[in-house]
Amino acid sequence: IESPTARAASPLAAFGARPEIQGPGMAALVAWVEEIAALTRPDRIHWVDGSPEENEALLTQMVADGTLIPLNHDKRPGSYLARSDEGDVARLESRTFICSEKQEDAGPTNNWAEPAEMRATLRPLFEGSMRGRTMFVVPFSMGKIGGPISQLGVQITDSPYAVASIGIMTRVGIAVTERIAQGAPWVRTVHSVGAPLRAGDEDVAWPSNDEKYIVHFPDTLEVWSFGSGYGGNAILAKKCYALRIASVLGRDQGWLAEHMLLIRVIDPQGRAYHAAAAFPSACGKTNLAMLRPTIPGWRVETLGDDITWIRPGEDGRLYAINPEAGFFGVAPGTGEATNVTAVETLWGNVLFTNVALTDDGDVWWEGLTEEPPAHLIDWRGEDWTPDAGRPAAHPNSRFTVSASQAPSIADDWEEAVPLDVILFGGRRATNVPLVVEAFDWEHGVFLGSNISSERTAAAEGKVGELRRDPFAMMPFCGYNMADYFAHWLEMGDLASELPKVYQVNWFRRGSDGRFLWPGFGDNSRVIDWIIRRLQGEAEAVVTPIGLVPAPRSLNLDGIDVSRQDLDELFAIDVDAWLEEADLTEEFYDLFGERTPAELRVQLQELRTRLQTA
Ligand code: GTP
Ligand code: SPV
Ligand code: MN
Questions:
Q1: Quick one: which ligand is closest to 214's CA?
Q2: Which reactions fall under this protein's catalytic activity (predicted)?
C-alpha cells in the first residue's frame, strides 16, 4: 500500500512489498495486517524480508531521521547510538498487564484487566496511531527456523528502531513468512510508539507517548504494546512473547519458558556440562553467560544470556534452547576487568542505547574503563565531564548485538542441550550464602520460589529496595505464579533424570558495604565446586538451608578472600532466616489455596531445621 505522501527518496522504498508466497496460512496473515492497518492508518506498509540490504537501508533512514547517530567507523564499524526519550528508559512493570479471561489466572502478582475492557481502552489509543509513519510487518522465529522447540510470531510496529532490534534479537525474514503460509502456528504482536504525525509535523528522534500499555492476552496469544519504544516494552518477541506468552504455552503443553542464561561448562578433563541460571534483571546473567574462568583448565561456552526454553526429551532428561539470536545487554559495569568477552563481542555491528558518546565518535559507559574520558556527550545529549556528579550513561543503557559475534559462543549454540544444573540467584547484600545446594528437586523449587533481590535500573522503581522475584520471573510470568510453582513441581515428574538445583549470591556485602566475593571470572570457582559435586568429587556440609561447601572444598587458589570474609559469605543467621520464613509464608498466603502443598511442607521443614539448629 503506497500512499501519495510516501517519500520517494527513502532508501527503504526499494524494499517492503508483500511477499508473493502462497499457502493455506497466508490469507490469515494478510487479513490481520490489513485489519491492524485499518485501525492504525499508517502511510505505508513495509513487509520486512530480513535481507542485509534492507537492514542497511533501514539504518540509513534512521540516521537521516535523527534516530541514530552513526559511530566512528574506524573505531566501531557498523555501529550506532540511539538516545531514548528521558521517560522511556526501562521496562514498565506498572503498565504491564496480563489480560486472561479469569483474573485468578493472572494471579495477585500481575496487573489484570478484563480482556474486553482492555480492548476497549486500547482501541482509541491505536486508532490512527501510525498516521504519517511506516507500519512494518516483521515475521520472526524464536529458536532456529524449523527447530523442534522453536516458535513463530509476527510483530507489527511503527518503530524502525524496534525493527532493527528485532533483526538482531531474533531470526527475521521470508523463511518465517513461508512457514506461516504453510500453516505453522504464530503469535500476533502489535506495537505502536503512539506518536502519529500530521501533515507538516516535525518528527522527534525518539517518538513515544506519555500513556503506555504493555498488554498480553494469553487466551488468544496476542500482545499489544503502546507508547514505549524501549527494549522489553517494544521488542515484543523478547519478554512479552518468549517469557509471558510462552510461559502460558509451557503450562499448557508441558514445558518451561524461563528468564535464564544457558552455558556449557567444560572441565579440565574435557567433560561438558550444561547449566541454566535464573537471576533477576541486571543481576549477572550476561556476565555469567560469558564467564572467563580464573581457574586453570576450565572453559565456558555461551549458548544464551537471558531466556531459556526447557522441554523434556525422549530420554527423560530436560533439554534447553536459547530462543533468541542476540544479546540486549546492560552496558554499565561491562569492561575489561569484568566481562572481556562482552567487550570483544562489541567490536562492531552494535546498536547502543543511552550510553555516552566520546569526542572521537565512539561510546563510553561507567565501568568500560577505570578512568572516564575528560569529556563526553552524556546519554541525554548534554556535555559531560568527570566532575558532573551524574552518570554519563544511563544505568539501564544497553547494547544490542548478534549472539554469533561472541568469541565464547558455542559452535552448536542453536541446538538443544541436556541440562545438568539449574542455578537460582539474586542480588542480596545479606543472608544468602555464596552457594547452597538443594536437597532435591522439591527443595530446589522451594529455593526458586523464594528468590528475593534488590531492585535494579532495569525497570521502574526504587533501586536497592528488596523485593520478591521468584525464579527471576516475577515481571515475566504470564499466569498465576502459584500455578507456575506447581508447574515446576510437575516438571519433576515429566523428566526421569533431573538437573541438580543450586542457589547462588555474588552480591553479599560486608558490614563496611563492600562486596565480600570478587565475582565475575572468579564465579568459576563456584561453578567448579558445583560440577565436582555432580561428579561426586566435592564435599558438602548440611545446614538448615541446604548443602554448602565443606571447608577447603571451594577452590580459592590464587585469590585473596580473607578467612573472615569467607565466614561472612557463608554465615547463616538463624533469626534472620526465621524472619525470611515469615515473609515467605506471607508471600505464599497471597495465593491462598493455590500455593502447592509441597511448598508449605518445605517451609515447615525449613523452620524445623532452623529451630533445631
Ligand atoms: P538483564 O539483561 O537485565 O536481564 O541483566 P543480566 O542479568 O544479564 O545482568 P548483567 O550480567 O548485565 O549484569 C548486570 C550488572 O551486574 C552489571 O553492572 C554487572 O557488571 C554486574 N555484575 C554481574 N556479575 C557480577 C558479579 O559477579 N559481581 C558483581 N559485584 N557484579 C556483577
Ligand atoms: C530485563 O530487564 O530483564 C532485560 C531487558 O533483559 S528488557 O528486554 O528491557 O526486558
Ligand atoms: Mn533479562
A1: 2
A2: oxaloacetate + GTP = phosphoenolpyruvate + GDP + CO2
